[in-house]
Amino acid sequence: MYLPPHFREDSLPELQRAIAEARLAVLITNGPQGMVASHLPMLFDPTPQPNGRLLGHVARANPQWRAYDGNEALAIFPGPEAYISPAWYATKMATGKVVPTWNYVAVHAYGRLEFFEDAGRLRSLVGRLTERHESQRPAPWAVDDAPKEFIDSQLKGIVGFEMTIQRLEGKWKLSQNRTAEDRAGAIAGLKEEGGSAEQAVAALMTDREKRS
After folding, report:
1. Distance of CA 21 to CAs 44, 77, 152, 178, Å?
2. Is residue 181 part of a domain?
3. Does any domain span residue 64?
4. Is 212 exposed, middle or buried (0-12, 13-18, 19+ CB in 10 A)?
5. Domain of 143: which CATH number?
6. Are 179 and 13 spatial neighbours (Cβ–Cβ below 8 Å)?
7. Which residues neighbour 61 within 8 Å (Cβ) at sequence distance 6 or greater?
8. Mean pLDDT of 145-174
9. Judging by DSSP bridges, how do beta strands 73-84 and 25-31 pair with one another?
10. Could you read off the pLDDT of 81-91 as tens digits, one per residue?
11. Prediction pTM value
12. What is the pLDDT of residues 79-128, one digit of tens each?
């Protein structure tokens, strides 16, 4: 990932938090036919230290797991993102020398994959993934709500994977290269004109301003 110094994020807690909060990731591996990518929900486990590990599963029919060549894989975790209009910048009024851009957060996690088919491990993984995404619902659904025989048959259709994270890259592109006045204008514009994604980016930018 291209990482200009002012956008680079090296704080391990920040990187891990972004991974844990991401709802969907992209798993990229290499094989005999070249690169393959799958869009998957994943679990983040902080052990082993220092970086932790990722857990997820793919469909058994997905050729990615059979084609994996055993080399380093990449998991991409997108965070909040939003278009930044140059109309929001104070510099537009001063000189007009402004162009559009995009603000976003992204984390890249690298490591080797271990695929597994053990029914017990798969059942535990599916249970944890379900709990993560159901826990905030008024009446959460649980894997045990379905008949055991049905769940057992469904588990036969997936293959689990585990990645111990060897290295992490993080990019928090939040207008750090603009003046304080331009950043303030972008934050105001995002809040006034945007939806939930824009509000999330505005909140991240505001937090950065408070820390600087």
Report:
1. 9, 9, 29, 27
2. no
3. yes
4. exposed
5. 2.30.110.10
6. no
7. 157
8. 97
9. antiparallel
10. 999 999 999 99
11. 0.94
12. 999 999 999 999 988 899 999 999 999 999 999 999 999 999 999 999 99
pLDDT above 80: residue 1: yes
Say which residue the tokens 């490591």 belong to.
111
Residue 186 domain-assigned (yes or no) = no
Look-up: residue for tokens 């060897």?
Answer: 166
Residue 5's alpha-carbon distances to 123, 152, 171, 176, 179, in angstroms, are: 43, 49, 9, 10, 16
Q: Which residues contact 189 (CB under 8 A, 6 or more apart)?
A: 84, 85, 87, 88
Tokens of 26: 């992209």
SS3 170: strand
Joined tokens for residue 33? 């036919």
Structurally, how many domains does the chain consist of?
Answer: 1
97 assigned to some structural domain: no
- Strands of 113-116's sheet in order across: 43-45, 53-59, 158-164, 113-116
**Domain, as residue range, for 158:** 8-81+103-176
Angstrom distance (rounded) from CA 169 to CA 9: 7
